């Protein structure tokens, strides 16, 4: 049986607790997260709607990786699963498959209500997800606000879920007192800060065209969120979708804490094999590339022309525009305990080559004097080399990758629907209203990345 190092087995938010000094030992940090619980309630009016189902399933698969005390779910769960996820015929089957448990009590714990209208103010933390068109967000459960517009597309539900779990974790961890009492959301059609996500947007198109040929670079935190988002989209013919999945890493115990398609049964498997198996169960065709991404190969003309990048290193990103992709949508996430909620997306090629965008490697945080690290060394769990390896591992939370994935996939969907493509999107989930968005100067009107039809 493979023995994994502390660096490869430590939960990535438990690492946040020890890096930030919230906990003075790994055991103390793990106890904190084992005490976190989350309740999810599905409003009856939302049970059959695909976007609300997307919000429900995303909340569960993201939430159970953070609220280690359990995610309980209540509502009309005998409803048919209308999203083509390989999780069973009913919502109840899907909830259990994703690691949720059926609610059995009335304890007051942080609660996320999926859909519905204005509810009764409750004790403690309670928010509801809200979606319309290409827009998704979260409101206090008693808010009288409601986004206006047409039926929502599923990625709006995924976005709403990511924002809701972020709010719930901010509340549980005590990091932001206003969590749960603020209105947070954005539009995937017009993500700029000047767009009010609650207002109806007549420019939003019906979701008609979906990408059929994509190359995914990296299959960890972000790569699996991309796949999850693709799985939520209403493909008329899933077998028309062809994916190339590229990674060299193996699933370790820590992978599950950030990567939303991973479970403990996959530990020891190559990420490419595990994710290709998931894609095949969904009906997608998938081939694998088990090689480090670098500029020493060229995309062939019959391979996907558009790539979604989830690499977590600058060296790989510097080569993105050198291998022949026509369009690359790249997302990078903050790695440290202070900035792990940040994300920056680029669409390449752009005004500046990739080699200029990532000239320098970010300086690692100095953690050698951290009490939890020194205790691990004193107890013989780590030596100095092991401490350095652990310190270099990223802090991460799956709701950050889920939010970033909706923005990245929306770039591809907007391209297919004749919308604007963005050069950069810069966002921090601590204050999402203060995001920075810049339009891409390129002309993509004649570019056809390959598409198929929506249901």
**CATH topology group of the largest domain:** Rossmann fold
Total number of helical segments? 13
CATH H-level name of the largest domain... which superfamily? NAD(P)-binding Rossmann-like Domain
Q: In CATH's first tier, which class of the largest domain applies?
A: Alpha Beta
Mean of all residue-level pLDDT scores: 94
Radius of gyration: 21 Å
Beta-strand content: 15-25%
> Biggest sheet, strands in spatial order?
11-10-9-12-13-14-15-16
CATH architecture descriptor name of the largest domain: 3-Layer(aba) Sandwich
Note poorly predicted spans.
none
Q: Which sheet architecture does the biggest sheet show?
A: 8 strands, mixed
How many strands in all? Answer: 17
Going by helix content, strand content and strand pairing, the class is: alpha/beta
Straight-line distance between termini: 46 Å
* Overall morphology: globular
The helix/strand series, from N terminus to C terminus, equals HHHEHEHEEEEHEEEHEHEEHEEHHHHEEE
The helix content, as a percent range, equals 25-40%
Q: Give the tally of structural domains.
A: 2
